[in-house]
Amino acid sequence: MASNKIFVYEHPNFTGLSREFTENVPDLQDFNFNDCISSVKVIGQPWVLYEHTHYRGEHFFYEEGEYPSVEWQDAISSMQQVKEDLKNSANKIFVYEHANFTGLSREFTGNVPDLKDVSFNDCISSVKVIGQPWVLYEHTHYRGEHFFYEEGEYPSVEWHDAISSMEKVKEDLTNPQITLYEDSHYGGKSITLNCETNLCFGSFNDQTSSCKVDRGAWVLYQHEHRGGGSIVARAGRPCPTVGWIDNQVSWARPLKPGRPKITAKLLWDKKEENTKSVVIDSICGLNRGKHEQTFSSELSREYEGSVTESFNFSNATQISVGMSFGFDIGLVKSEVNVSLSNTFTVEKGSSNTKTEKKGVKISLPATIRPHTKLTVNVVRKEVDVKVPVKITIKSGYSYSTEYGEYRCQAGNSILAEYQEEDI
User: Fold this and answer.
1) Are residues 71 and 123 located together in one domain of the fold?
2) pLDDT for 363-404, tens place per residue?
3) Is residue 391 in a domain?
4) Is 202 domain-assigned?
5) Do 238 and 298 share a domain, yes or no?
6) Domain presence at residue 402
């Protein structure tokens, strides 16, 4: 029996028709179960449920557990199992008993509905967050006052020794959008926001009574400049009223995703290679006599060889300036093998070009035979290799792919070719 599976149900609370799946489902119409999922149970690896077929549109992440009501009911058209190993998840939180990261500590990568279960209730005073934001709650099962923490280190939390549950933000935070409404239950005039906004600069200050988060997770503040009390509103979670902050919202901002994880892979099967030989020096000697004579006063000459590596991003890159990643090179597979460092490191915003130069010594012949013209051509073999690079960007639970190009121009293979003519 497969250990990784999902059970989907037609109605909330695991009722109505149901199906069990152990593999990806690009189109639920193929199983007569399109747009009719309202609750799920996940065993093993997490699953991602998508609004449209073939893993497109809005998507929702479900780790192992039981979910009596999904975010978007009757709106799922495809499902994908998360295959990556999450034991070393890049999204985690470290919690500490005392301020400044001292005392007992714990590490968590998944939601904690009750900190009593792990003997850490009402004793958190500082936290460190890696990756996606986390929300810490006053009471168990994600109730009461709550505080959000984006990626970073917090030597002191807002409420010491008062946290009883924690929830990881799983929404895609890369393209946020929220609509604020003047009246409760999404009535009256509205305003749609896509970035952090000071409502005091417009006509919607202190007028919000309800909201819909289309994408991401948002924090609504009582005062401008992120001041006063706040609430967190999230995609797929109805907010027909904003509660105590009704008609008091002056500032709104989206939660930021953690630093993206970037991986890159060279696509050797799509390599382009050009090789040419270039004469960089020619030395000629004539011996019209009957005896051998010296070819040159020099026994050897030294020439400069070089290897230049570079990387170019695509025009529509989602990678921000300052982000860096590396990929394995090993040995460039070309007619002339060029040994390189094992890893080429790329940083957005820098030149991403490096050149290594070295001297190559070429020995010259000592003598010329009688009645002979001897020509020594010094030839550099130049190899130009271009390899596409597939770049995968993981931001929270969202993946995107783009491409760049790695290029290696090698001219460090230098040799001498002899030509003799009788005269």
Assistant:
1) no
2) 999 999 999 999 999 999 999 999 999 998 877 767 778 899
3) yes
4) yes
5) no
6) yes
Distance CA 219, CA 251 (A): 8
Buried b (16+ CB within 10 A) or exposed e, 191-202: bebeeebebeee
From 187, 219, 254, give the residue that closes a domain. Answer: 254
Provide the domain count of the chain: 4
- Please indicate, yes or no, whether residues 400 and 283 belong to a single structural domain of this protein: yes
340 and 332 Cβ atoms separated by less than 8 Å: yes
pLDDT at 337 over 70: no
Instruction: Answer yes or no: is 87 within a domain.
Output: no
pTM: 0.59
